Each structure stands twice: as structure tokens, then as C-alpha cells.
């Protein structure tokens, strides 16, 4: 995809300003009027000096002070109105962009999150959107107001002495060349700076989330060095920006000073020849000096504008990421729970070999199917196809006889519940974590019933605020077994006909596992269940067990039948039985 031009980015940015065009028009109107009053002060100098000091006109001496106060009062009011209105628009634009980014982010496919660090995504939403403000509104304020100030002052200068004014235009080509050369460099450095900020955020987020591992393995020094390296990279890019930005203004001001020196020399010569009155000379020099300020502002824009455009490019690159494919039109109500994998193959993008290869498998409604095999056999990948976290690269998956791609994602996923080893909980109350998402309208009685069925009420009642207790980030205040039971309560409340259990009892102590197993038994009752387990003892009662190896189903049957065949399942079972016996003996 070709890199967007600055003009394309800017027009796209301004589309976010369009809904607030009335307030924006007030802001621009205030800028225009402020700029229009800019020449009034130097213009007053001519009658003030010539009338008061040369012609000794007393009426002018009385009126001029009042006129000066009036001019600056008017400019103050106009400046306040335009500044407030522009700030209002800019904050609305930032809010809208962040909201749109987040809404888009939650609809991106699983593969996107696997290929992008959370730190980089956090940086885009938190920092890059704020950087857009410079291009969307702040820079626009300078471009509109100061450009008009330049035009107004040039108009006055042309009126006072057009020959001298033409000299000021000599610097225009040189200024244009400087701005063009530095803008390209600044935008490149701004883009690299934002990538470096994403890396800083990533290291920070990773260290915070893994703080216990960092402490126990003595990783403080390593993480500090990693953060310092990322921080140093960010500083390097920021300093390269600063070098270019800092050079721009003095170079432009040098050109302006040369033009001003020529003007002053010629003006003095004309004054000595009585071609210039004292008032005209003072007005001309004052207007010329006033012209330097907006010119400086316009040259200073050369730094924030490329940074803002680089931020916009970063934000829009995320907004342009294609969301999950949801082309299905069929709305599935309460499903029966029949699942069929029809010659399904799947290869991860960039994968060297297929994760799944020609899978043919049928799961009857209400049946419990266990998936076993060594790591990398394809168990989790097969289960991930059912809620369409991925689509098969060949074959199809049928749900109650319907191809998953024909079903809307919302109706498909409303019929599936998931309990995994890596329980996902939110920094919210116990009740909010059970009645999450589409279930947020559940009554307290329904929430408590789900918790009771999951054997979670025992520990919930012991908490200070019961169901209203905040559980911390990802349930950090709960034990592993408590977190699992909370996830099971969430699945029970959803009451979906299909259940996926992904290593749901691994890494638990004996007492916690007993509670979790009781909760799972209640959850699996009457549901089509796909169980992924390394510990084979937990799935002996499954209706059928499918044994996977290198992405293929190599055996399928009940526990006793598979042991009698003395194949791969029996081998895995004997190995694990021996490992468990050795562990028990050691204890």
C-alpha cells in the first residue's frame, strides 16, 4: 500500500473536524478578524507621529491613546474566542479519534494481536492520537491566523511603499526551499520516534504485567537495561528532530534580517531625500518588525506539522487494518450443538507446515470430546476454529449443519462459552466479571446462582464486599482456583450450548482442582463440550477422545478402547502415569 501524502493525511484529518464546523467557523472567524486588526497599530503610528509631533494637532493626541486601547481590547476578545473555540474542536477530535480507534481495535482479528505488541497499540491510542492534535488544529490556527497576518501587514507595507515591500518578497523562495527540505526529514524522524515510543510502552507494560517473574528471577537489572536501551532510542530520534527543528527558525530569520537590513538602508536614504515622512518611516519599520513574528510562527510550524502528520499516519494505519470477516447473514438462535469438521486444514500465516491437516470429525449434540496429543499437535488450533478466531485454509467447519462462514459472528459466539487455563478477568467487581459483556443485564439472583453452581460462593462471601469486591488487574487478588471458578461461573451464566475447555484444570493444587472439577461437571451437563487437556486423568470420562499428532487425528475412541489398542494414546497415558507416580513418591 503506497505511503499517503501529506495532503491526503490532512484532508482525512479535517474530515473529523467537519461535524463541528460551526464552532470551527467561529474559531476561524476569530482568527481572521484578529489578523485583520494586526496592521491597525502600525497604521496609527503615521497619523500619531505626523499629526502630534509634526503638525501639533491636539485632537489626534487625545484620540490616539483611546484608539490604541480599543485595538488591543478588540484583539484580546477575538483572540480569546478563537483560542477557546479551537481548543474545544481539538479536544472533540481527539476524543472521537480515540473512541473510533478503540471500537476498531476490539473488532480486529486474533492474528493482528499476535503480530503486534500490546505496548505499540497502547502507544497509538494514548500518544499518537494526541500528536494528531498538532496537525488537526494547532497548526491550522497558525497557518490561518499568521498567514492572514502576513497578508494584512504586506498590504499595509505595499500601501506605504510598494518598492520597499517587494524586497521582503525576495526571501520567499529561500524560505520555501528550507521548509521543504526540513519537513521531509522531520516527518521521517517523527515516524521513527513514534515506533520507539511504542517499544518503550511495550517494555513497560511487559515488565509491569510480569513483575513477579522479574522479582523472583532477579530480572530487575536486565529489564532496566532493556528499558534504558528503548528510552535511549526514543531520545535519539527526538534529538534528531530537535536538531532539524532548531535550525529551521534561525535560518529563516537570517533571510528575514537580510531583507530587513536592505529595507532599513533604502528607507533611510529615501527619508533623507524627503520621500518618506517620519510617521511613514515609523509605520513601515514597525509593520516590518511585526511581520517577523508571524513569519517565525509559520517557520516553527515546520516542526509540529510533520510530527502531527506522522501521528496521523500511525493512527490511520491502525484504522485501515481490516476487521474480522463477518459476512455471514444467518442468525443462529439456540443451537443444538452439533459440530462437524469437514476435511479441515489450517496453516498459520508464514507457517512452515500445516497446523491441521485434513481433519474429519463429528461431535454430536451433548457429547464430550477430548483432544489430546503432544505440544504442537494442533489441539488448541482445532478448538480456535470453532468460534472463528481463525478460518480454515481448506475444508469447512459446520455448526448445526451451517457453514460457520454463513453465520454472523455475534450469533455464532453467543452459542459458545470458553474456559481456559489463562483465565481473563477484569479489574472490576466479582459480579461484573461473572455477568460480563452481553450478560451485563443479569439479576443479582442469577449471578449468585451461577457462582453457587461453580462452587465460588464460599470464597466470595468471605470477601469484604462480597460480589461487589474489586478483584484487581486480571484477578490478581484471587488464587488460581478462585479465578478458574469465577470463569466457570461466567460460562454457566452464559448458558451456551457449546463449551470449550482449554487446559481448565492445569496448574491447580489438589483441593482447588477438586472444586474446579465439581464446577466443570455442573457446567458440562447437557452441553456439547470440547476438552483440551495435557493431564489425561482429567478426561477419562469423556464420551470420546481424539488423539492428534502433527495436525492429524490418528486415533479416536473411548478411554478404555484406546488403552486396549495400545497405540499413541496408551503410550502417552503410560508416560504420564509414570511421571505422576514419580512425583507422588518424591512427596
End-to-end Cα distance? 60 Å
- Spatially, the strands of the biggest sheet line up as 6-7-8-3-9-10
What's the gyration radius in Å? 35 Å
Strand content: 5-15%
Key terms:
single chain, 587 residues, alpha/beta, 6-stranded mixed beta sheet, 4-stranded antiparallel beta sheet, 21 helices, 63% helix, elongated
What is shown here, in short?
The chain has 587 residues and is of the alpha/beta class. The protein has 21 helices and 10 strands. Strand 9 (544-549) and strand 10 form a beta hairpin.
Q: Can you characterise this structure?
A:
This protein is α/β, with parallel strands linked by helices and 587 residues long. It contains 21 helices and 10 strands. It has helices at 6-14, 21-36, 40-54, 58-105, 110-115, 118-160, 162-168, 172-209, 211-216, 220-272, 278-300, 304-319, 379-385, 409-413, 430-434, 444-453, 457-462, 480-494, 510-524, 559-565, 568-586; strands at residues 339-346, 356-363, 368-372, 394-399, 402-403, 416-420, 498-502, 528-532, 544-549, 552-557. Helix 19 links the parallel strand 7 and strand 8 (528-532). The protein is elongated, with a radius of gyration of 35 Å.
